[in-house]
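Re-running Protein nucleotidyltransferase YdiU to confirm reproducibility after the cluster update. Everything else is unchanged from the original entry.
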Amino acid sequence: MENRKHTFDRMPLAARFFALPARFYSLVRPTPLPEPQLLLWNAELAAALNLDADPAAHDALAEYLAGNRLPANSQPLATVYCGHQFGVYVRQLGDGRAILIAETPDRDGVIQEIQLKGAGPTPYSRHADGRAVLRSSIREYLCSEAMFGLGIPTTRALSLVGSPQPVWRESVETAAVVARTAPTFVRFGHFEFYSHHDDHEGLRALAVWTIVNHYPECKEANNPYQALLEAVITRTASLMAQWQAVGFCHGVMNTDNMSILGLTIDYGPFGFLDGYDAGHICNHSDTAGRYAYNQQPQIGLWNLQALAQALLPLLDSKEEAIAALHQFQPQFEAAFAEQFRRKLGYADWQEADWEPLTHLFNLLQAGRTDWTVFWRALSDHAPYAEKGSIPAQLRDQVLDRKGFDAWFAQWQSRADRSDPAALRDRMRAANPKYILRNHLAEQAIRKARDEGDLSELQRLAECLRHPFDEQPQFDDYAGLPPNWANDLSVSCSS
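Result of re-run:
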């Protein structure tokens, strides 16, 4: 039977969080915003949530998405957690500007949480205003949906609402709210909070809740908590490999920004690689380079160690945790190999493939070759190259042409080029033509913020829904970044 479509004010609500101890959260209402305006509405996601995709079908939709009104029977709340920020333990953090307003089933029957980010202060705001600005909210909306289009696990954005209310950051900006969704926003830091506060009863309750709602396959294990840790390790290893494959840099991989479901969460100072630099630091605030692109897999493991430490009271022994953590590296390497097997168009991955792949990385590093443009050009042109010939569209991107000639000969000997069109299509499906480059986001932000023109924002959002498709109408988004893009920087305030 077809699911009935609901309006935002009358969506069916679940109440899973109230099965957790009351000390896990605080009931708090969003703080109203003046003159909210709906800037973006994700009709596709709305339909998946059994909501009417037509925004006009919802009464006063912007009021609900700003937090000025609440769905019927909503009990909004913010959760408490702690975590390691840039490697330093912070005893209490929490949802400082995010308020959960609904848990509702999607069309597959999976409960999805809906949070309003920027909806005002909570008990965990630590003297901050609980607001988000339009600039950072646009970036979060665009990137979460870009990652979804890339097939990478992520939270999603349902809407973006703006308001003329002034908010002070480096300068005065205007307020905005993103309604974002996920099966849960529980983080590694939630488990750390209970463990580091010696609340083992609360830790067990949270672990049981997580297993029941999100990892039911762990229930039958000899130790369900060990199985939970192992499952999170597997998902995190896969996520790290997917990030590396598309050149995504998170920028602030604190343990409180790590999803227990292996989702990409909390889009702040993120960035995608332009010219390839393994040590690229996308976060201007990260002066030590802790979260550089090439450090992300190891930081993923570091964060998993913090999670394992938190779960120790539920495990049979420390050795169990160590054994689980030892699974990360081989799982990451296998996931990484699978990503690049697909990017290179190989039928399988062989041990001998690691050496030429490393050689390719060195070639791209030496010339700061654009990561996305190179891989897409390889997909488009390499399948059709005659044996022993190299398309100029590829060769001219690499500084060391002789070195690239040798690499390309190896690639030709490994790839099945008997059907070039089929090989091209397989490689295109692993190598996006479009990513959310910083300068593209900046152009959309400036038009929306400075001119009140939403057309660039809407156009870019539409393009990023299908990043692997040719979409010739968006070819202007697929080129190399302009020189002025080198002057852009993002920080923890982004």
